[in-house]
Design goal:
alpha+beta; Aminopeptidase; eight-stranded mixed sheet; 3 helices
């Protein structure tokens, strides 16, 4: 009589991931092994650009939101969809945090929705001094701060483009 195979271990519970809109992306190598740029276009929503900085010696990979803009007739939530798409794309290269200088309450609010407002920490834009300002306080004048938060971790990723690709 053969024994039944043991039950597989329970899968790790992953946080829910919103369905990503269809998008196109283009990665460029700025400094091989250190810095990469991406431009993402989400049809009928808008576009977003970011810079992935890599410092494997210090175990750091972060994406900086350079700019994002919703199309003129984009539906509500388009800014959040753009940021979510950049977060997803950057996480494919093992980025662990996202930051940016968000210049409006709507942009900062979209960022907070993607990464979780409770996870956002702020530095003063000029001087880069850390501050204990709350998310609600930063919303009153977001131009003063750089917002940074850990990226929600998705499935492990292994994306590569060419011989200048980001090492996995």
């Amino acid at each position: 009589m053969s024994e039944a195979a043991p039950a597989p271990p329970p899968a790790e519970i992953q946080p829910p991931v919103e369905a990503l809109p269809a998008y196109t992306e283009e990665w460029l190598t700025d400094i091989p092994g250190q810095q990469y740029s991406v431009a993402i276009k989400v049809p009928e929503a808008g576009h977003i650009t970011g810079t992935l900085r890599v410092d494997d010696a210090n175990d750091y990979r972060g994406v900086y939101v350079d700019l994002f803009a919703a199309d003129e007739n984009a539906p509500p939530g388009s800014g959040k969809a753009l940021l979510h798409t950049l977060a997803h794309e950057a996480s494919q290269y093992r980025a662990t945090e996202m930051s940016g200088h968000f210049t409006s309450p709507a942009a900062l609010g979209a960022f907070g929705s993607v990464v979780g407002r409770e996870n956002v920490r702020f530095t003063v834009r000029h001087g880069e001094a850390a501050t204990d300002v709350t998310f609600e306080e930063a919303m009153s004048d977001p131009t003063r701060y750089i917002a940074t938060a850990p990226l929600p971790q998705e499935q492990p990723a292994v994306k590569a483009h060419d011989d200048y690709a980001i090492a996995a």
